[in-house]
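pinging the channel bc i need a second pair of eyes. not urgent but kinda urgent?? the chain im working w is below, pasted from the shared doc
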Amino acid sequence: MGSRAEIVAAAAKVMREQGYAHATTKVIAQTAGYSEAMLYKHFRDKTDLFLSVLGEELPALGAALGELTANPGRASLRDNLTRVARLGLAFYLGGFPIAVSVFSSRELLRSHRERLGAHGPKVLLDGVANYLRAEVSLGRVNVATDVEAAAALLLGACFQQAFLATFEEREPADLAGRLADTLLAAL
């Protein structure tokens, strides 16, 4: 593992333990065993590091959505929705301890929102909606389906379950198949 990967892994660890707002680049670099200067050789700032943590340390929900949108018919609709739900649950479960502190102040939230831009949380909802549109074009989802609402129902349920599991300090229930079945009945 190179210095960049070690810094991303350390950032994930520190951000999970202290939250984004309280994780400093100095502590992240020290945890990785590097200087802050080395951290800044790889990352522009803490937000850049945060995006790397989301993309590299948490389950690859975005990549899976891109793959499913490009090849929706490769597996059954139920299997695809279950995969999305499973990855969504894992993504939010891993991301809660990291991102929740972004909401600790309006200024931090505004700054973070401006920096994330197109990489903000809506990108996942759009990814699920795009995947569902691909399923509509295959005839496996009813053409009258509101794909944005269906995406919000699926990821919203994943988000809520991850929130509850994080709040209660417990493992989340394995609801992926049940969430898929429930959504499938409406599609």
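so The chain has a mean pLDDT of 87. and The longest helix spans residues 77-99. — does that match what u expected or am i reading it wrong
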